[in-house]
């Protein structure tokens, strides 16, 4: 009876290895491990990916609101990608310590605005709400302004 258990364990190990090898490589990977002083220079590539995902998601949500039937599945995928990017940046420390992670105001502001804009867009995707979309768009615009200041 040990043979089936070994087969199950071996299959599970192979499956996990396959999942691990297909994890999306992004500029944001590893930033969650950094505890102090993320500079604009090192964060900019990640911020560029987050900004692009926000832009795409906003456009897809607009198309969805106009009745485009293909927009919802595309928006879901973009929203999942945006969530993965943000999780790759999120600190593992309490908020008070996490504030020390950002060495520049522009990077801290960008990340804060982008994170909340993503949450608003995600909520809009689950259940359309004009005010949530407008708030997401407002925060998205603030994120863009901060993004332009990242050196």
Number of helices: 6
Radius of gyration, whole Å: 19 Å
Q: What is the H-and-E element order?
A: HHHHHH
Which range does the strand content fall in? under 5%
Helix content: over 70%
Query: What's the CATH first level?
Result: Mainly Alpha
Compute the average pLDDT: 83
Low-confidence stretches: 7-22
Strand pairing plus helix content: what structural class? mainly alpha
DSSP strand tally: 0
**Main pleated sheet:** none
Specify the CATH architecture: Up-down Bundle
End-to-end distance? 62 Å
Looking at the structure, the CATH topology is: de novo design (two linked rop proteins)
Mass-distribution shape = elongated
Describe, in plain words, how this protein is organized in 3D.
With 151 residues, this protein is mostly helical. Helices cover 74% and strands 0% of the residues. Helix 5 (105-126) packs antiparallel against helix 6. The protein starts with a helix and ends with a helix. Mean pLDDT is 83; it is low at 7-22.
């Amino acid at each position: 009876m040990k043979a089936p258990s070994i087969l199950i364990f071996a299959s599970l190990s192979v499956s996990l290895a396959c999942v691990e090898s297909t994890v999306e490589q992004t500029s944001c990977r590893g930033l969650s491990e950094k505890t102090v002083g993320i500079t604009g220079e090192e964060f900019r590539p990640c911020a560029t990916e987050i900004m692009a995902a926000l832009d795409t998601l906003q456009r897809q949500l607009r198309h969805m609101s106009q009745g485009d039937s293909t927009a919802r599945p595309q928006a879901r995928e973009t929203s999942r990608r945006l969530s993965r990017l943000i999780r790759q940046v999120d600190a593992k420390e309490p908020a008070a310590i996490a504030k020390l992670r950002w060495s520049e105001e522009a990077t801290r502001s960008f990340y804060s605005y982008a994170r909340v804009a993503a949450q608003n867009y995600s909520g809009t995707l689950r259940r359309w709400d004009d005010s949530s979309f407008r708030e997401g768009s407002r925060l998205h615009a603030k994120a863009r302004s901060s993004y332009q200041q990242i050196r």
